[in-house]
Amino acid sequence: MRHDLPPEAMRDWIVDRLDPLELTGASAAAPRSDYDLSGGRPPAGAAPLKPAAVLFGLVDRPSGPSVIFTRRADTLRSHTGQVALPGGRVDPGETPWQTALREAEEEIGLDPSLVTLAGLSTPYQTGTGYLITPVVGFVATPISLSPNPHEVADIFEAPLTFLMNLDNYQQQESRMPNGELRRFYSMNWADQRIWGATAGMVRALRDRLFGAALG
Question: Could you give the CA distance from residue 51 to residue 131 in angstroms, rounded to a whole number?
Answer without folding.
Answer: 5
